[in-house]
């Protein structure tokens, strides 16, 4: 997937569904999972040496029911987050020496509905930061 024109899709293979891996990401006191903050997101990520470095990471988006009571609002924000990620995931592969994390959980920490532009800007900065940290 290191080609110049990366497909702007978000297939099932790139979605984090494994309960075991999700448990590893959110395990309290774990030194394996790392975190990062940048409004409107809190990010947990893992680097797994078994996963090839040219493969896009598996991601998960979480919107709190505590902050957004209505499912309509949570679904809207989840769609906005997925769309922003789909359009900007190529940033993980912007330079050949960067290795993206294997698994990423994006948690929306905003208390009110956030517009798409804010979500996209935050996601772009986070992807850039994650690429540099590794």
What does this structure look like?
With 134 residues, the protein is an alpha+beta fold. The protein has one domain (15-133): Ribosomal Protein S5, domain 2, CATH 3.30.230. 33% of the residues lie in helices and 17% in strands. It is built from three helices and four strands, in the order H-E-E-E-H-E-H. The chain has helices spanning 19-26, 71-88, 116-133; strands spanning 34-38, 41-46, 58-63, 103-108. It has a four-stranded mixed β-sheet, with helices on both faces. A hairpin with a 2-residue loop joins strand 1 (34-38) and strand 2 (41-46). Helix 2 crosses helix 3 (116-133). The chain is globular and about 40 Å long. The chain starts with 18 loop residues before the first helix and ends with a helix. The model has no long low-confidence stretch (mean pLDDT 88).
Summarize the entry for a quick read:
By secondary structure, the chain is of the alpha+beta class.
How many beta strands in the DSSP annotation? 4
CATH topology: Ribosomal Protein S5, domain 2
Low-confidence stretches: none
Helix content: 25-40%
Provide mean pLDDT, rounded: 88
Query: What's the tally of helices?
Result: 3
Q: What integer value in Å does the Rg equal?
A: 14 Å
Envelope shape: globular
Q: Under the CATH scheme, which class?
A: Alpha Beta
Major beta sheet, specifics?
A: 4 strands, mixed
Task: Decide which structural class fits the backbone.
Answer: alpha+beta
Order of helices and strands: HEEEHEH
């Amino acid at each position: 997937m290191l080609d110049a024109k990366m497909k702007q899709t978000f297939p099932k293979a790139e979605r984090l569904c494994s309960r075991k891996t999700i448990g590893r990401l959110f395990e309290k006191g774990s030194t394996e999972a790392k975190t990062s903050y940048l409004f409107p997101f809190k990010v947990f990520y893992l680097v797994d040496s078994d996963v090839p470095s040219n493969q896009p990471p598996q991601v998960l988006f979480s919107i709190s029911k505590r902050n957004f009571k209505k499912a309509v609002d949570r679904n809207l924000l989840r769609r906005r987050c997925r769309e922003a990620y789909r359009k900007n995931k190529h940033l993980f592969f912007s330079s050949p020496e960067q290795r993206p994390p294997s698994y990423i959980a994006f948690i929306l920490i905003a208390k009110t509905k956030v517009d798409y532009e804010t979500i996209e800007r935050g996601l772009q900065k986070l992807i850039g930061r994650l690429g540099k940290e590794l």
